[in-house]
Every structure is written in C-alpha cells, then in structure tokens.
Amino acid sequence: MTKTLFEQAKPILKTLQSNHYQAFFVGGSVRDYLMHKTIHDIDITTSATPEEVEAIFEKTIPIGREHGTVNVVYNGEHYEVTTFRAEGDYDDHRRPNEVFFVRELYEDVKRRDFTMNAIAMDADFHIHDYFNGQQDIENHIIRTVGNAHERFNEDALRIIRGLRFQAQLGFALENETFYGMKSHIHDIKYLSIERIVVELKKLTSGKYVAHSFENLQYLNAFNYIPFFKHYKLNDFILDEAIPFTLFVALLKAQQPLVNGTLNDLKISNNEKKDIGKLERLLNQLPNIKSKSDFKILLYDYGEQDILLILNFIDLHIKNHLPSFSPLIINIQSVKEESKKLPIHSRKDIDINGKDILEAVNKQSGPWLKTLLRDIEIAIINRDVQNIKPEIIRWVKSHVEIQ
Ligand code: ATP
Ligand code: MG
C-alpha cells in the first residue's frame, strides 16, 4: 500500500506541528500517491527554518541548509525537510537571484513548476491544492503553476522537466504550457549540462518517450544542448524507452563522422566507458561473418551488452544502423554460446605471461600481448584446451616467436 511510507514519516509532521509549525508532504510523492503509483522518496515542506528543524529533532544532517533543506534521520530513515521558500527575481534563466524563507504554504507551492507537483498533503492525508493539480492529474494534463512564459523564462530547466514528465506519465502538455516551451526553448543554453542530463536520463527511459522525443525535436531542443548540438537529431527515431547510455551510443554509431565529445555531457567515467563500449560493439556487429567471429565478440563484449542491443533491434533498424547477420547473432545464440564459452575473461586462462616467458625462455616484449590474444582465440575456438601444459605445447608448435 503506497500510504505506508507516508505513515512512517507522519511522526515528523506531527512533531513539527506540536512545536507550532506547519508541515506537509509535497512534490513528486504526493503526485504519485494521487495517481496510485509507487512512491520512492518523500519530501516534506515546513514553516520551520533549518535552525528550528535542527533544534527539534535529535538527529539531523545539514545537506542543503542554504536552500533550506535539512535531512532528518528518524527510525533509521532519512527524510528531506525543506523550509517554505519563495524566490526572488531570475536574471539568468536558471537560478533565482535570492531565495527567502517564508511562513506560508501558498508562497512555497506557488514557485513550484507544474500544478501536479504543487500539491501538499498534511499528516491526516488532507490535500491542499491551490492550483487544481488534482484536476490536471485526473485529466492527464501538464500545466505550469501560473503563467507559462514567466515560469519558463525564470528557469528553462522546467521545459525539459515538463517533457520528461510527459515521457514518464504520458500526459498532454496544456496549450499555453506548450507555447511557453516554444518561446523559451533557446534559454536552455544557459542551463548547466548536469541538470539537463538528469532530466534526459529520465526522459529516454520513460514509457511514453515517443511523444516527448518528438516534442524535443519539434522544439529543436537539442540545438541548444552541449554534445547533442553537433548531431542531426531530427533524423533520429526514439519511440521506446531505452537507457540514456544506449541512446547516446546509437546516435554516435549512426553518425560516426560527427565528433561529439562525451566530456561535454559531464557524465561519470563509468557512463562514458559504457557508451564507448556500446558504440564499439555497434560498429563491430556488421563485421561478424562466422560463428567463430561471433564467439570472440561474445567473449570480448559479454552477453549483457549484446543482449541490450538485441532487445532494441527495432530502434537499430529504424535508425538505419549498419545491419548484421540475424542468423549468427540473435538472442538465443547469445545465451547458448555464452554458456558454452570455455573462458569468459583473461583471468580464466590457465596460463599467464610469466609462465609463457619461462616456457619459451625469452625476454618479454610486445610479442607477448599478441601471443596472449592468439591463445585466447585458440581456446575459444577449441583449438587448444585450457590446460597449462596443453597451452605451452600449442604455443611451441604453432607460434613462431622471434
Ligand atoms: P521524481 O518523482 O522524478 O523525483 P519530482 O516531482 O519529485 O519527481 P524532483 O526533481 O524530485 O521531482 O523535485 C521535487 C519537487 O520540487 C517537484 O515536485 C517540484 O515541486 C519542485 N521542483 C523541482 N525542480 C523544480 C524547478 N526547476 N522549478 C520549480 N519547481 C521545481
Ligand atoms: Mg522527487
């Protein structure tokens, strides 16, 4: 039951109230609760200032005190408690010049992005809905709180957020909201790429991404986003939910002559590595002409990434990526052959560089790397058994070492 998380957090609201402060659940958790969806993290908003919150609760962590957020640890769980906030003017389309703490709930929800995200709920599960968010949820409509032009002019990230909510929920964009997006889309160039990527990741993996991706294209949003602005996104089809990393890899593989650098996306090194690997794999697939090539590919890249690509084969085809042999590479063959592989990584080989040097009595050199690769391939092709003396015998009889 989705109510349980709220029940667990209820004592925090009650404690604040018994200290004569107001406190509510707010934001995504209330929206998801009203939509009968599973809720993940609960946000609490209160009239108490961060100092006042810290004075009331035994265990707190000042995670974002300057923005009014204190982490309250209660029963081993962490809850974000944020003071009612109002925002000053915006000059740079992304951050208010100043934020100030206020004592009215209305002032706090007024600065939130969409009506469905501006609904507050008290400890007794009573809803406080100043902007008809519930009605918009019922009608499946995404609508800004207040004037769309002003709200997008203040913070252009709300445009991308609106589209990501569309991708996740399948809601329609209310007319003024959509026109507001259109008028202010160029302001997304002022945003930090990190904030955009957070939203894009949720967007590409949203169930209803097809429609919102078309909207991104219609708005020419990608022209204003680092990295993506180098690519021709209007030629790209994204009509099913995919991981962001695969989306970027497909785009790079589709347009290999474009030299977009992943550093511009400011993603983690692991994500960069994942994209690079998927891109190399996409480029390798058309070169696989035999079962032996396929086994080596499977060994080099692993089952998981190949299956990921095969699961999205329709996107591969629709985006005109170079085709590959479905007879050799298919979901069944990947699973079967992967189980049959005699080794899955270099660690599984029953010999190491030192053993080889001893066996052939030679100085190390670049030849050793080539030889280890040859041994790997011979084991995968079952030309030699993965047993040390066998490998040594194979090396001595098959390979010439200068
Ligand atoms: P999710 O379920 O994906 O976390 P969410 O609505 O909780 O969705 P968050 O990014 O966690 O989204 O933000 C929490 C709340 O803060 C939002 O529901 C909204 O009320 C407010 N908010 C977040 N970003 C903005 C913004 N750029 N402008 C105005 N309000 C915002
Ligand atoms: Mg949230």
TrEMBL record:
GO BP annotations listed: RNA repair; tRNA 3'-terminal CCA addition
| Keyword Lipoprotein attached | no
A Pfam family reported for this protein in Swiss-Prot or TrEMBL: PolyA_pol
- Segments forming domain Poly A polymerase head: 23-143
> Which domain of life does the UniProt lineage start with?
Bacteria
| Necessary cofactors | Mg(2+)
- The catalytic activity of this protein is classed by the Enzyme Commission as 2.7.7.72
UniProt binding sites for ATP? 28, 31, 112, 155, 158, 161, 164
Q: Which reaction does it catalyse?
A: a tRNA with a 3' CCA end + 2 CTP + ATP = a tRNA with a 3' CCACCA end + 3 diphosphate; a tRNA precursor + 2 CTP + ATP = a tRNA with a 3' CCA end + 3 diphosphate
Tell me the ranges covered by the tRNA nucleotidyltransferase/poly(A) polymerase RNA and SrmB- binding domain, including all copies. 170-229
Which PANTHER family does the UniProt record give? CCA TRNA NUCLEOTIDYLTRANSFERASE 1, MITOCHONDRIAL (PTHR46173:SF1)
Assembly behavior: Homodimer.
Provide the family line. Answer: Belongs to the tRNA nucleotidyltransferase/poly(A) polymerase family. Bacterial CCA-adding enzyme type 3 subfamily.
Q: What is this protein called?
A: CCA-adding enzyme
Biological source species: Staphylococcus ureilyticus
Q: What is this organism's lineage?
A: Bacteria, Bacillati, Bacillota, Bacilli, Bacillales
